[in-house]
Amino acid sequence: APAGAVSLRRCSTRVTPEGVNRPVIDRIIRVDHAGEYGANRIYAGQMAVLGRSSAGPIIQQMWNQEKDHLKKFNELMVAYRVRPTVLLPFWNVAGFVLGAGSALLGKKGAMACTVAVEESISDHYNSQIRTLMEEDPEKYKELLQIIKQFRDDEREHHDIGLEHDAEAAPAYSVLKTAIQLGCKAAIFLSERI
């Protein structure tokens, strides 16, 4: 380029580890972003129904943590140049409907939803932790720390749900099983599409 000309080529300012397993990292970040997005929509639906009830502050506290999780995965999507799942518009609606629908069953229904979802997500995070540990724990140190912290937060939400009578929800075992099957399908699809 001539002297004084401005280059139009964009430069990357991201710092990512060399030699990362791109398919594994892309899949992990894409699905975790989708999961945290969906969790935010579930809590938004629950707050729309129960926000002014005695359960409102509890749900808000969990939602605030999920907002932090989503913010972090938004940053990781950019840093690692991972495209989001094309299913985000669907998860937007499905998450809100699941949250509002479970909340329409009352506080116990909302908490049953929380237990089912958070158990599925913490199990999924454990699977990812095992994968990254097998790959190279030092290379994926930062990502492992993030996933471990978020897994612990999800476990805390699970326990909060149990403490607030999730198991007393109408048809608890059926509701939990149905929600967890939906979570497994969402994980499977979001990793790939």
UniProtKB/TrEMBL annotation:
Organism: Ibidorhyncha struthersii
Protein name: COQ7 protein
GO molecular function, one term: metal ion binding
UniProt keyword Nucleotide-binding present: no
Source lineage: Eukaryota, Metazoa, Chordata, Craniata, Vertebrata
Any single GO CC term annotated in Swiss-Prot or TrEMBL for this entry: nucleus
Pathway listed: Cofactor biosynthesis; ubiquinone biosynthesis
GO biological process, one term: ubiquinone biosynthetic process
Keywords: Iron, Membrane, Metal-binding, Monooxygenase, Oxidoreductase, Ubiquinone biosynthesis
Record InterPro entries: Ferritin-like_SF, Ubq_synth_Coq7
